[in-house]
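Q: Hi! New to this. If I give you a protein sequence and the SMILES for adenosine-5'-diphosphate, can you show me the bound structure?
A: Yes, paste them in.
Q: Okay, here:
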Amino acid sequence: MGYNFKPCPTHSGFIFARGINLTFNNSRMDYDLKKIISSNRLVGLWRLMTGFQLIYVLAVISLGIAAIAKSGTYFLLRYFVDTFFINQDQRFSPALIGLGFVGLALLQGGFTFISGKFAAQTAEGSVRRLRNYLYDHIQNLSFAYHAQTETGELIQRSTSDVDAIRRFYADQAIGFGRIVLLFVVNFIALAYLNLKLALISIIVVPIIVVISMIFFKRISQAYEAYQEQDATLSTRLQENLTGVQVVKAFARQKYEIQKFEIENWEKFIRGKKLLSMHSMFWPISDIFCGIQLLAGYLIGALMTINGELTIGTYLAYSGLVVWIIFPMRNLGRLIIQMSTGMVSYQRVVEIIKQDREPLDEGDIHPDHGINGEIHFNQVCFEYDTGSEVLKDITFHCKPGQVIALLGSTGSGKTTLVNLLPRFYDYTGGNILLDGIELNRYPRRYLRQQIGIVEQEPFLFSRTIRENIRYGVNKEVTQEEIENAANIAAIHEVIRDFPDGYNTLVGERGVTLSGGQKQRIAIARTLLKNPRILILDDSTSSVDTETEAEIRAAMEKLMQNRTTFIIAHRIQTIMNADLILVMEKGKIVQQGTHEELVHLPGMYREIFNIQTSIELELEKELSSDS
Ligand SMILES: Nc1ncnc2c1ncn2[C@@H]1O[C@H](COP(=O)(O)OP(=O)(O)O)[C@@H](O)[C@H]1O
Ligand SMILES: [Mg+2]
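A: Thanks. Here is the predicted structure of the protein with adenosine-5'-diphosphate bound:
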């Protein structure tokens, strides 16, 4: 079949599908769902089932057997009435005929059960794989993609839309097979009874199909609009909960609630539209099916009176015809329900289509690590073509030096340091690391060599130990962890927690102060032991007392590493080997503190302002006491 995802080979059956549970985790990266992408959504959905296609077909065949058993019941009924009763042909005893009815019922029940089981297996199995794949895929998408995609949208697509696909397999797709089989089997049975009557009984089919197709298109659109709005709502909720402190601090609950209500109203409107379309479809198709059924009964009755049909045949007909009208009625419903699965498939594919960040692309990855000498030569960068965020950036630093970046918000400091781990690739000039073009180092390698302490470090809701050892891939001893925590001046704080290093961080555990989080992040980076260090505004959000501690911790962290430090306080950066003053994406001044402070320009202005403020503060403090 050509789409042989390794974890579940195409020849798999029931047992194989189970086996995936055991082997899957080890081989998550062995398959690529990108291959399932097809402009035809049904083809795509079929491919997504790779590995389960066989059991899926078995599920449909089981349904077919169940359908045949069902039709068989009516034939047995005809036999019972016409041959046994009316013609008094008593070759088979009533008990045997009764047994025949029971047997057929058992057959029908048994195969319906098997089919349901197989269908569930297909649905749960393929969707489980899809979920894992999506999670893995989303982790590996580029910085740029995450920057421009709303979290709520990603969550919506990897949960609600995936679930719609699951329902598609479990209910709709299998239901479709069932309906087609029921229809075919029962139509053949009817035709065998009486061809004329059989043809009369399906006049309505094309009408139902046409109506379904019309509704299919409109319901697809309505559902898509609904899912979009649902995503907007989750984004809003997620953002609101993340920023709950800001909301409370500014007492903006009312405003937030109002905004939520507006979005929720829109969802209501769209949901109503979707539902009303569903509810419009039902009566229409029911009316047609009802007329068809009645007409069939009537014509059949007339034919029986005229002697064209036997009573047994009429009885069998009236039983069978329900089983042809019933699938028809459901066919329409299924066609329009299938639209949800297909729209959701499309929405999920939009994520799958995104290119992953090629983490291992690049030919330079020295085993002994890097020295940390960096050249920027006329580097330019733009996020969106046409608007340069960095212009003509040129500087040089030796291994182990400290480079400080100073400049107003939006001047491009974060953008500049984000080029080093290749979160983004520069669009002009070049950057040399140890004399080699930066683009030749694989991203993964660079990120292993570079440690970043963000302005507001993010800690996971896991234990403190896990948070500290997050950056290292190998086993680390408790001693190493404590050592890092010690240097980061956080060991004693952690020791005093009731569960020590096993204390959970976040909602279900301790609440850490900004400074404590900062120091845990420093310990995390220390343990990683990177050659290049980036400190992005790492001290601006903590109070002065902890700042002294953090600064001491950072100084230890900075030893023997090429360090980029972004800070607003001159005091934090005046010992740097090189200070870059940035303005609107350009370096406007560079040099050491001693050099810059004696030159007219931005640095001296900032220095003067900051020192005079500090002097005044000191004066005030001393006059107070
Ligand atoms: N992901 C992004 N996409 C597009 N523009 C961005 C992105 N990140 C930052 N910018 C823009 O780039 C400029 C520099 O931003 P940044 O490097 O964050 O400045 P700084 O760190 O000095 O405050 C700003 O104009 C900002 O709006
Ligand atoms: Mg910044």
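A: The chain has two domains: 14-353, 393-624. Let me know if you'd like me to explain how to read the tokens.
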